[in-house]
Structure formats: structure tokens, C-alpha cells
Amino acid sequence: MTNSIEEFETHSKVIFVIGSNTTACHPLIASRIIKAKENGAKLIVADPRNIQLSRYADFTVHQRLGSDVALLNGMMHIIIKNNWHDQAYIEQRCEDFEQLKETLHTYTPTMVEAITGIAKKDITKMAELYATQSPAALLYAMGITQHTTGVDNVKSCCNLAMLCGNVGVAGGGVNPLRGQNNVQGACDMGGLPNVFTGYQPVADPKAREKFSQAWDCELSDTPGMTITDMISAIEEGKIKGLYVIGENPKLSDPDKNHLDNAFKKLDFLITEDIFLTESAQIADVVFASASLGEREGTFTNTERRCMLTRKAVEPVGNALPDWEIISRFSTALGYEMNYDCPSDIFNEMTSLTKSYQGMSYQRLGIDGLQWPCPTPEHPGTPYLHKNIFTRGKGKFHAIDYKDPAELTCEDYPMLMTTGRMFAHFHTGTMTRVSTSLDSEQKTGYVEINPKDARRLNINTDDMILLTSRRGKIEAPARITDSVPPNNIFLPIHFGENPTNVLTSSTAFDPIAKIPEFKVGAVKIEKLIA
Amino acid sequence: MNCKFVPSVCSYCGTGCGVLFEVIDGKINSTLPLKSHPVNQGKLCIKGWSLHEYINSYMRLKAPLVKENGHFQKATWDEAITHAAKNFNRIKETHGPDAIGVLVSAKVTNEENYLAQKLARAAIGTNNVDHCARL
């Protein structure tokens, strides 16, 4: 997030949520949004489904799955036409506005209505609501990113925010809501194929020299593979060994049948987890990890806040903290790692990472600190790009709408989207073992619009066979108008109804390599019991 | 009876709500919201309130496992780590460091992510490091 969670309540005059089912997936951020609304802020929600947050919105629209670029371009077209954009901000702080303007020219309300299914007057109203009050915060989640046009979608969100002068101000910004407790931290720590900690490129000789000296070893200058590329490389026999820490790719990655075949070709698989997940079951060695509360260490949340978690109890059985397992494994591989405690590791990391350099366990306290925090006196940074963008000028990207990889056809006449539900988390490993959460929802299901249910003679809890180009799964029907006609929704948490049998591993964003989990073509049939 | 409260952070979504673990006689008995926390200000969602339940689950892995003839056997840490290292070193010697991939985790700490990418880059010699940010 460019900004902080608190600012939605304290500063934002407008909150625009697109592609985030916030009440289900980030409930405590949703509660801030609802409070902001009570304080008088305007709430706009754009989502293909009729999500709970829509019911609180001042204005809500349901764009067709995968049509976000067209919708955002359409809003910007109207904003410029009505002169609602912030010309002074654009001139002072941004570049490439003319190119954007030229592209937007063709995104007339008529054209955008045809692509998105949103009425012309609604697009205009929405644009007016977003643009005529500031600061306006834009919030998104995987509904924006899990598309073949994920990067285009994100850039379009940035275009809109900059157009109205909303980046670099309290209560504004472009705010991706991170789905995992430490996905921000994993990225910050160099858990990516092309960068060391703090996004220092492995291809940059200076950065490589710095880490090479600190770690006393030679380092490869070639960026590595993303998870999406690794799966293909395993299938082609290029990757033989895989070490998977705290992750369940068998359920979280697209196209399960393809994935299962690839995993069979691995020479050696190590998993490190707190449970014997679907992925751990096929491993050659499983390392048993200590969980939250059984070890000390820091997490960085969606607003870049690095916070310390403390040890409350001893690890279960012989489980060890991951830092200890990794150190011992590294030493056994022939590269010695010796650390007495997590704070030693933290200090080594901060000495190599400018954005974390001013942090220490003592300073983090209970509230933590938001990066960048470059010196021991620095109070942390609630919002980014104040006065000047990190890269200098805020760059507008002229982007044209592209269709999702799969559209409906005669054989697969319905569109599927996937996501989370309120009681469960990701592949369910941490929630289905919890009695309270399991009692909320015990099985997978498929949401179907009442019109489709009538047409196909489907009743609640009837078993439905879902078929995509990749495979088939079964799931009980849940009839609800929260999905539009001709669309279905599947939650991703349930291994017995694995949605990744249906999703495609070849439909992904060319830059971010993120799979298009939010749009796919399927056929549905009622199973006669 | 020994009772204490230990501050922590919820490990589900990326919001990062501050929690207090209520520890009674060496076991986490419940999860409470941290009232002063800047993120959640004394509130939690249903997952947060139930946070200790997965930690206490009887399904937790309690020892490292090594697969022999298709079946898992409990192992000591030395056995499991030596076995894993021997096989990874064999792959590296035969096929080079880029024949190995490491998936770090959005669920483990910053310190552990830092070490995991260091292991990939320094101990194995590959930049094939990624995690589930895209999923």
C-alpha cells in the first residue's frame, strides 16, 4: 500500500474499492471503510459480484469479469472531458500524460458500456464521485491482479489515482490489500527471483558486490525463475530439486493435473510446514516447523508495517523454528549459517537493506514501524511519494483493454471466478483444522445465479459437475444472486473440490506471471444422484 | 497456575492485526485483540479470534519425516537434514545449481525469508527463488 489503513478513516473523502471482497478477506480494513463512510466519506465499489461491501456503498457497479481496464479508462475519459483532473499536479509531478490522453480518447461511455456491461450514466456518475472530492483512496486486491492483464489493471489504477492528484497525499493512494500475513515481507526480503532484499536487483553489479561481500561467496547474476516458470521447468526436466517452505502449491497453483504430472518428475522434494499438506504428502523429506507463537520474528503487513511477534510457548514435539531449520540445512549443504537468535538475523538484514536500516527489535515495540525507515531516528513512513515520486516523475501508462484469455463459447458457456470466503484462508491448511472456523463452512461449494439454477433445474446442495478445458470437479450448489447470471464463483479453500483442477496454467500475465484465477470458461451440469 | 499474555500479530491475511495470546501453563488458551494496536484497535475477525486453534491442532507435524519405500518414517533432525542435503548436493553436482528451486513463504517471518533466499543464493548458488505472492 502507498498509504496506511488508519488514513481511510481519518483522511479519505472518497474510498474506491475495486476487485476486493474486503469484508470477507480483510475484515478489519473493511471495518475502517465502513467507519469512514459513517464519518461522511463516499464509498464506491466495483466488483463483478454483489459483495457485502457493495451494500454499504454510495455507488456500486458490477463490471464483467476481466473488463477492469476498460472501466478505468472509461472513468478517466469522462474525468478529462469534464476537466475534473488535477492539471497542476499532473504538470508538476507526472510524465507521459499526452500519450494517456490519446489512448483514452476512444474509451467513450458507449464503447465502455459495450465492454463492461455498465450503463453509460453509471460510468459517468462513478467518475464524478471519484474525481470531484479529494483525497480519494483506491483499494484493490486479487480481483485486479489475478488476470492475464494484471499489470495493465494495476497501472490503470495508478493512472486514475495520479490523474486526480491522489498519490502522495494522506488518505489517498493506490492500495493493494495483501492476502497473506507476510507477503509484503517475503517480497521485501528478496523472496523473488530477480532481487535481493529491499528490491536490489541481482543483475546490478553494485548490489551483487555488496551481498557477495556480506555473505562471503560468489553470486549468480542471472535472475531466476518465478514459481509459474519453475513448474514448466520441472516438467521439462530442468529443475530436479525443489525446497518448499510454508506453502501448498498442489492446491494453490493453477491446473492441478498438469502440476501433479510435473511434481512426479521431481528428483527430490523437500517441504517445510506445520501440517502434512497436500504438497507435503508427496515430498521426500518433510521438515516440521514451529508456528506463530512458538518462535520470535517479524512480519510486515500490507501497509509496510514491520511488527515483532514473540514466543509464547515451546514448539510442539520436535518441531523447530524455520530460521533454525534453514540455518542447519544450509550448514549441511556446505555453507555455514550460525545465528543465536532471530534478532541477529534481523540486524544482518537491516545492515543490507536501506528501507529497514533504522529498525531494531527494541524500536519495533508493539506498534512496529512502517518502511522506509532508513535511520534509527526515523519515525517510519505512513504514506509514500510525498512531494516527489520514488522514481522522480509519476509515469502514466497508455493502456488498451484486452480480453481475458478465455471467453465463453458453445462448449464452455459460463464464466468462472475464484476467491476466498470469510471463514477460511487460502488452501485451508490453517483454518479447516480449527473447530470454530470449520463449523462455519465444512465443504466447498459453487455459487450459481437463480436464473441459471432455474434454467438448469438446479436446487440448493445439488451436486454440480464443473468442467473446464483442464479437468472436472464436483461441488454442491449454492444459489445466490451475489453472482451475475452466466457466472459462477468457487472458493479456493477445499481440497476435495479443488478449483485448481479447472484453472489454466497457460493463462497468466506476461510480466508478473500471475495466473488468471479470476476468469475462466466452464460448463456446468447437474449430477443426478 | 501460571498465566501470561504475549503480544503477537495475526498470521492469516495481510492486515496485520495485533493480538495477545493468553498462555496458561505453557499452552495458548485463547487469542485476544490488542486494544492499543494501530491496525485493529481492539477488534478481530472470526479468523483472528480463532488464531490459537490451528496452533493447538492435533494435526500439527511434530517431527521431521523421511520417505522410505513410499512411506513416511519419523526421523531425527540430523537424519532428515543430512538426507536432504546429500540429495540436493547430488543434484547440484550433476545438473548445476539452477536445477534447484526454492519457494520461500508469505507465512514465515522476515528473518526466515531472508535466510531462505540467502540459502538459495549463497548455499545453492541459484536465483530460482519465489513465493506465493502471485497466488
From TrEMBL, chain A:
<keyword id="KW-0479">Metal-binding</keyword>
<dbReference type="GO" id="GO:0003954">
    <property type="term" value="F:NADH dehydrogenase activity"/>
</dbReference>
<dbReference type="GO" id="GO:0016020">
    <property type="term" value="C:membrane"/>
</dbReference>
<keyword id="KW-0411">Iron-sulfur</keyword>
<dbReference type="Pfam" id="PF00384">
    <property type="entry name" value="Molybdopterin"/>
</dbReference>
<dbReference type="Pfam" id="PF01568">
    <property type="entry name" value="Molydop_binding"/>
</dbReference>
<dbReference type="InterPro" id="IPR006656">
    <property type="entry name" value="Mopterin_OxRdtase"/>
</dbReference>
<keyword id="KW-0408">Iron</keyword>
<dbReference type="InterPro" id="IPR050123">
    <property type="entry name" value="Prok_molybdopt-oxidoreductase"/>
</dbReference>
<dbReference type="InterPro" id="IPR006657">
    <property type="entry name" value="MoPterin_dinucl-bd_dom"/>
</dbReference>
<keyword id="KW-0560">Oxidoreductase</keyword>
<protein>
    <submittedName>
        <fullName>Formate dehydrogenase major subunit/formate dehydrogenase alpha subunit</fullName>
    </submittedName>
</protein>
<feature type="domain" description="Molybdopterin dinucleotide-binding">
    <location>
        <begin position="415"/>
        <end position="519"/>
    </location>
</feature>
<dbReference type="GO" id="GO:0051536">
    <property type="term" value="F:iron-sulfur cluster binding"/>
</dbReference>
<dbReference type="InterPro" id="IPR009010">
    <property type="entry name" value="Asp_de-COase-like_dom_sf"/>
</dbReference>
<feature type="domain" description="Molybdopterin oxidoreductase">
    <location>
        <begin position="2"/>
        <end position="331"/>
    </location>
</feature>
<dbReference type="GO" id="GO:0046872">
    <property type="term" value="F:metal ion binding"/>
</dbReference>
<dbReference type="GO" id="GO:0043546">
    <property type="term" value="F:molybdopterin cofactor binding"/>
</dbReference>
<dbReference type="GO" id="GO:0022904">
    <property type="term" value="P:respiratory electron transport chain"/>
</dbReference>
<dbReference type="InterPro" id="IPR006655">
    <property type="entry name" value="Mopterin_OxRdtase_prok_CS"/>
</dbReference>
Automatic annotation (TrEMBL), chain B:
<dbReference type="GO" id="GO:0016020">
    <property type="term" value="C:membrane"/>
</dbReference>
<dbReference type="Pfam" id="PF04879">
    <property type="entry name" value="Molybdop_Fe4S4"/>
</dbReference>
<dbReference type="GO" id="GO:0022904">
    <property type="term" value="P:respiratory electron transport chain"/>
</dbReference>
<feature type="domain" description="4Fe-4S Mo/W bis-MGD-type">
    <location>
        <begin position="3"/>
        <end position="59"/>
    </location>
</feature>
<dbReference type="Pfam" id="PF00384">
    <property type="entry name" value="Molybdopterin"/>
</dbReference>
<keyword id="KW-0411">Iron-sulfur</keyword>
<keyword id="KW-0004">4Fe-4S</keyword>
<dbReference type="GO" id="GO:0003954">
    <property type="term" value="F:NADH dehydrogenase activity"/>
</dbReference>
<keyword id="KW-0408">Iron</keyword>
<dbReference type="GO" id="GO:0046872">
    <property type="term" value="F:metal ion binding"/>
</dbReference>
<protein>
    <submittedName>
        <fullName>Formate dehydrogenase major subunit</fullName>
    </submittedName>
</protein>
<keyword id="KW-0479">Metal-binding</keyword>
<dbReference type="InterPro" id="IPR050123">
    <property type="entry name" value="Prok_molybdopt-oxidoreductase"/>
</dbReference>
<dbReference type="GO" id="GO:0051539">
    <property type="term" value="F:4 iron, 4 sulfur cluster binding"/>
</dbReference>
<dbReference type="InterPro" id="IPR006963">
    <property type="entry name" value="Mopterin_OxRdtase_4Fe-4S_dom"/>
</dbReference>
<dbReference type="InterPro" id="IPR006656">
    <property type="entry name" value="Mopterin_OxRdtase"/>
</dbReference>
<keyword id="KW-0560">Oxidoreductase</keyword>
